[in-house]
Amino acid sequence: MSGTATTEAPDAVRDAAAGLDLDHLTQEVSGSLMRDVFGGRRADPEFTALVAHSTHGNLANIQGVFSGRLRVRDTRASDGALELAGAAAELRLPQTMLERAYRSGQNRFWAAWFRTASGHARASGTPLETYLGDPSEQLFDYIGHVLEPVGAQYQAVAAEQTGGGELLRETVLRRIATTCEDVPADEVERVLGYPVLGHHAYVIARIAGPAVPDALQADLRRAAGAVAVLPFRESLGSWGVWLALRDPAGPAVSARVRRALEASGIIAAVAAGGDGVQGMRAARTATDRVARVQRALGDVPRVVCDQDVRLETLLLDDPERADGFVRAELGPLAVHDERAERLRSTLLTWLSTGSHVSAAATLGVHEHTIRNRIREIEALLGLPVSGRRAELQVALRLHRVSPAPAGPGSPEAPTAAGG
Predict the structure, then answer these.
(1) Average pLDDT over the chain, rounded to whole?
(2) pTM of the shown model
């Protein structure tokens, strides 16, 4: 390890390092890590935030080394880096994935530094080699240096997680949840104590603690009339719970589970699957779709069941086809600006309530305002909205969960099929 002294960094390198935009670099590097290394956790906002926090801490250390304020050997793993290592172990991500993230981040940063160095070299007349010689050695030294405490933190947390038969339980759970392989029913029942034969429902609840509270598990079991419950760690901020049912989940069961979750005060999504291991997977997949719609909508109730958002989940099954339907039905109303948003809200409310008076009361505006907006909408669409109530209502609901498609006339690639 070089341990470069703080007085050895040339002024040109110090100036270039001091000018690094750490916030922008954090976005660039952490975004690439979530895409290229941690792709399976992109839907986990807490994990994504931890990756960004860890990245920012590492970049701040590297900036300090390049600018001559720190020796490599004097740097310390940031709190974010240690938290990410612990979270990776807690989520059973392999340590090699964490190490790959550091190497990938190193490469992404070096590409950004090369761009910065090239610009400074042209402006100052200082040879480019000045910016690349010592800094390249320092960067490699830093990555090796910081991986030592990061790896130790990972191992410490992993050791806590694997006591007794916990590792075997976790392995079987992961095989059920994240693979398509056949897991024998007798193995599931022997290792997990959960009956596979029969029907299954699944709940995803926003719980940040180390476990699903026993009281909530008991409430869900009682509400669903389930013969067993099986918790599964979905993310740093959420847990899943399988419910083993004697019969297929009908409206009465869904209503009781909804009430139990509402009473708990947590945010949750619920869906049913089928029987066997495939039924467990189907229930989890369906609930994940409901949870994604719930996050996208934002203003829905704290507890959402699959039957509440069946139309919206269509978008997640075939986003390209759904986006085409939205564009065809809404036309200029599909753009993402304040005026279109106001008109979409008015139209959806008008279609849902059935009258100008009710829509006005719901939105808190005058009845004449609703009439004027409906006329404006019809002028934009070129047809009376009363003739396409069902199609427009479906398109408006799908638009709420679409990944910001670029409607006609929007500045975002007007002809792009996927938005």
Answers:
(1) 87
(2) 0.66
